[in-house]
Amino acid sequence: MTGRVVDVSGQLVAQAIVEVTDLGRSVTTGADGTFRITLAPGRYTLAVRRSGFAPAVREIVVGGGQTGRALEIVLTPSAFRLEPVTVTATRQPLASASSPLPAIALAGDELREAQSVSLAHVVEALPGVRAITTGSQIGKPVIRGFSGPRVLVLENGSRLEDYSWSDEDGPSVETAFVRRVELIRGPASVLYGSDALGGVINVIPEALPDAAGGPGFRRFGSTLSVATNNVEADMGARLEGARGNLGWRVAFIGHRATNLTTPAGELNNTGFGAFNGEAAAGWRWPSGSALAVRVVHYGGEFKLLEANAPPGETGGPERKAGDDRIQITGQRPWGTWRVEGKGQLQFHSLIEVADDTTGTESEQFNLLLQTGSLDLLLHHGGTTFGLAMLGQRNDASGREPIVPNANVFGSAAFAFEQWSAGSGRWTLLAGLRGDFRRLIAERNDSLGVVAQDRENQAWSGNAGVVFTPVPGRGLSLSLNVGRAWRAPTLFELFANGPHIGEARYELGDSTMKPETSRGVDFGIRWSGRRARLELAAYHNRMSDYIYITPTAVFIDSLRVYQYGQAEAEMLGGEAVLETEIGSGLVARTRVEAVRGSNLTSHEPLPLLPPVRGTVGFGWRDRFSVDVDAYAPPKRLNPLDIPTAGYALLHLGGGTDVRLFGRAMRLEISLRNALNQRYKSFLSRYKEFAFDPGRNLIVRLSSGFSTP
User: Fold this and answer.
1) How confident is the model at residue 359 (pLDDT cuts 50, 70, 90)?
2) End-to-end C-alpha distance for the chain, whole angstroms
3) Residue 42: phi, psi to the nearest 5?
């Protein structure tokens, strides 16, 4: 397939990246704006990107008399940074503008600027997303008010399992290895099953290098960053190469930080250390077949601020998190169909260490979650059929009984279809899925759990439409309705003990049923030469919503809190406006709000993010200034701790430099530039500590060079 990339005046565009998103292969246009790529017969999605232009997406067919036909792709000038394609909304590439599901992404400079040891802190840069934080190193994503087991995290389309019921166990993802983060705001169980009730975060790693059957090469890249608030230092390196049809990569990064500092002083026992790495190899064949193997390690020791520590005491509790996984992915053409497989083995551990009554360090608990998953997909045009299987083993030990040992087995089948009508003015998507899940819990006398076997069946569905009144004018309207579900966690079912961090005694309910949600989402998107606007409104009605409520009973001076179920609803909206007010100078503003109610108890849902507004300016990739404003929460659940409203000033800048004979990128950001004293409503430390103060971050990353 040959082609060329031009601008609206017909001028050739050099150095544009042309990516075959189905295969993860890309080429760069030459000085004459042309490109050439060899593809097996089939249907593909091309995404074309170039700084200073709006990305373009083209569907192409290779074969059937069209092989060798030259393409001409026209790019329109734009100062806005948008991701053209989503693979999360349909499990195969789809132009983002054609998705009725509210799909957004973080990539490129914006992703690099937000890089953190915590994925939740990174995705806070996206509309409708917040984080429940335990310091700067641990966070749990919140999508439109949904969090914990109601938000599913994927890596390259495979589920990442963790102890989602624990506020101190976040997603095990190293953001330095990420190419882009895609996010679905709203129910997506039809594609991913249980837990995709409130949304999905899909972390997509960098594609492996491709020699395209030509001579081999190797290249090296590195990154170094420091932060002043907690004296954090991060250092990483990546070596990759390709020869023939083989591409490979080895990467690692280390993080080390001391205690956090607030405007009121230092917070004891809030440092952390982590070392993460990956190794991957993949093969591509001219027939269109591909196979890749990836091994990932994520691990660290994260110290926890102790609420009632005696004055002057040093040390305290510590969480040791570890995650090792092996991923195998493959695809091959099968006539006019494409077969895709994703398999993963994951070993996730969570250990809490603290001093006992004698002052000796001991394990409070030791949890190990072992999961195997397999997804088989069959694609044909806009049609996808899928089978999903999961097996999981949970082992628990330590001084504190948390959950019983248990096994989980799951299987599912689904179908999804996307098609266009009315000369491209209408894009429609629809899907249906059925899930079976079996939980076998072992007897645990400490928790009062008898051996039991539970089975659940659930169905999910989605239907959506995007209407473009005048193709090519940038205006579209979208509507999506969906049904999603999630199974209760082991903690919600079998908890029976003190939760010291919350000063309460918690009781689960082993009779609880799966949650279900029916959601409606409406959106308006408009993108012009110098401005773009996105509006979204949503409503979710939940049956058998799982929540915790205080009782009149006390055990060991701790009030007993009982898990129960109720009817609930969540509604809200987001608005984003960007305008180019000068050459490359963009003004941006964003507002988001969510409101939730327990319809059975007639109370607000707990820990819902307050109204957030952002105003900022950015000049290309050189300079940015943003003000984030947070209103005080207006509707509080009886369990909520109120906080005051506040506003934070953030500054950022970057430039390309040359050091030691190598091209490098230097980025500097100043978070909370005015050293504002505040408490985030979603901080787990808000009752006894302020959030971090001013933080200067300097990051130096090198481009690839031949070692």
Assistant:
1) low
2) 33
3) 155, -175
**Encoded amino acid at 572, one letter:** G
Contact (CB, 8 A) for 590 and 575: yes
Range of lowest pLDDT (328-332, 612-616, 660-664)? 660-664
- Which one-letter DSSP state was computed for residue 472? T
Q: Give residue-wise pLDDT tens across range 512-551.
A: 999 999 999 999 999 988 999 999 999 999 999 999 888 9
- The secondary structure of 218-278, three-state, reads EEEEEEEEEECCCCEEEEEEEEEEEECCEEEEEEEEEEEECCCEECCEECCCCCEEEEEEE
Tens digit of each residue's pLDDT (9 = 90 or more) over 370-389: 999 999 999 998 899 999 99
The answer to whether 187 and 144 have CB atoms below 8 angstroms apart is no
Please provide the DSSP assignment of 174-210 as one string. Answer: -GGGEEEEEEEES--HHHH-TTTTSEEEEEEEPPPP-
In terms of residues, how long is the chain?
A: 707
Instruction: Report the candidate in 128, 131, 181 with the shortest Cα–Cα distance to residue 154.
Output: 181
What's the CA gap between 595 and 588, in Å, rounded? 24
Residues 6 or more apart whose Cβ sits within 8 Å of residue 51:
621
Distance of CA 235 to the CA centre of its chain: 23
200 burial (CB, 10 Å; 0-12 / 13-18 / 19+) is buried
Query: What is the sign of the dihedral through the CA atoms of 675, 676, 677 and 683?
Result: negative
**Structure-token match 């409104």, residue found:** 537
Give the predicted TM-score (pTM) of the model.
0.93
What is the number of helices (H) and of strands (E) in the chain? Answer: 4, 45
For the chain, how long is the longest CA-to-CA vector?
A: 80
